[in-house]
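Notes to self, beta-glucosidase:
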Amino acid sequence: MERQWFSTCCVLLLLVLVSCNSSFAAAGAKPLYLKYKDPKQPVGARIKDLVKRMTLEEKIGQMVQIDLTVASSDVMKNYYLGSVLSGGGSVPSPKASAAAWVNTVNGLQKGALSTRLGIPMIYGIDAVHGHNNVYNATIFPHNVGLGVTRDPQLIKKIGAATAKEVRATGIPYAFAPCIAVCRDPRWGRCYESYSEDHTIVQKMTEIIPGLQGDLPANSRKGVPFVDNGGTKVAACAKHYMGDGGTTKGINENNTVISMNGLMSIHMPAYLNSISKGVATIMVSYSSWNGKKMHANRELVTGFLKDKLKFRGFVISDWQGIDRITSPPHANYSSSITAGVGAGIDMIMVAYNYTELINDMIYQVKNRIIPVSRIDDAVKRILRVKFVMGLFEKPLADLSMVNELGKQEHRDLAREAVRKSLVLLKNGKTADKPLLPLPKKAAKILVAGSHADNLGNQCGGWTITWQGQTGNDLTSGMFPVLEQFCLCFFFFFCYNFTIRI
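result:
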C-alpha cells in the first residue's frame, strides 16, 4: 500500500514538473521565425517564403482592389483583400481632414493585418494634379499645362509635393502619372496628356522620381523602387497603351496604328518610366487594332513583362475587365479569363468583389486559369509592398498631416501656373505692344463663363471625377486660380493667343 502511494506521488510530481517546465518554456520561448517578416532578408526570399504559405483564397484576395464605399475592416479580413482605392469623389466624409483620412485608411489596414498571414493592403487614389480628391489639398495645373512649361525639374518638384500630401492622408499609392500622347484634340481627356509630342511626354516622366524617390544607381532595370522613408508613394504609369491615339479622339475607342507607330509614339514614355523604377502600370480601356488592351496578352505579358522585364504589378483600370465586352459585364467569366490571362495582376473591381473572387477560385480549381499565373501576379504585388516597406510600417500616423495644402506647395503651384502660360502672339495698339501690362492698371476686365467659377477652372479630377462647378468649396482648396483668372482676362480682352 505504501509502495503504491509512493508511486502515485512520484507520478503526480513528475506531471507537475513537466507542466511547470512547459509553462516556463512557453514563457521564455522565442516567437516563431517567419522569413517573410524579416526585413534583413532579400525581397526575393521574402516573396518566396510568403507565397508558399498562402492558400488559393489568400492569393486571389491579394489581386483584388475594392472601392472605399464597400470596404470595411471585416471585408478586408474575411476576403484577404490586397488593396482599396478611392475613386473620384469616394471620401471618408465631405471635406474630410487629413487626420480623418489617416484614421479611415488605418482602420481598413488593421482588418488586413488581422488575417492569418498579416499581409498589409495598399491604398490607392487618383492624385493626378495634386492630391485632387482631398479637400484643402494643393491643386496643380493638369498635365496639359505642365507639359508646356518644358521644365522637367519643376514637374519633379510637383511630384515630390504631391507625394507628401498623399502621405499626409495615410495613402501610399497614387494612380499617376498619365503619360498618354494625345494625338487628337477632340479626345475629352487631352487635358490629362502632357503633349502630342512623345519626346515631351518622355521628359515629363521625371515626375516619377518626384513621387517615388530617385532610383539608386545599382538598381536592376524593370524592378520597382519606392523610397521607404515615409514621404514617397508608389506611382502608376497609365494608360498602357495608345489611349491618346484613338480614332476620332473617342474615349476608350480603337487606336488604329502599326506596331512601328505604336512603339515610336505611344511606347517611349513607358520605357522612361520603367527605367526610373515605376512601381505599377495601369492598362488602358482602349483597343489596339481592334484588340482590347485589357485582353492583350501580346503587349501586356509578351512585351511589357517578358521583353522589357517589368517586375512591378500591372493593374486594370476602373472595372476595366468588365469593359472587355460590349456591353460591359456581358460575359464576366470570359472577361476574367481574358484579363488575368493577358497579364493583369491587380483587378480594380470596385464593387462586385465577391463575384470576381468566386469566379477566379472556380477557374483556378478547374484549370482554366493556371496557378502559375496567379502566383506571378501575387509575387509582383508582394514585391511592391515589400519594396515600399509596408510590412515594416503598415499603419500611418499623424506626423505629416500639416503637409496637406502646405504654403510651400501652394507657392510651387503658382510657379507652375505662371510657367504654363505660353504667349504665341502679342497684340499691339497704335504705338506699343499690349504686353507687358502696366503694373498699375486702373481696371482689369475678367470675362468668360469660367472667370468667376473656380471649380470649372480646376477642371476634372477635382474633389470628384468630373470636377465641380461653382465657388462654394473654394476655401483653401483652389490656391492658384487668380492666375487662371488672369489667363481668361487675357484671352477675352486682347488680340493675342495663349495656350495653357
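- The mean pLDDT is 91.
- The chain has 18 helices and 13 strands.
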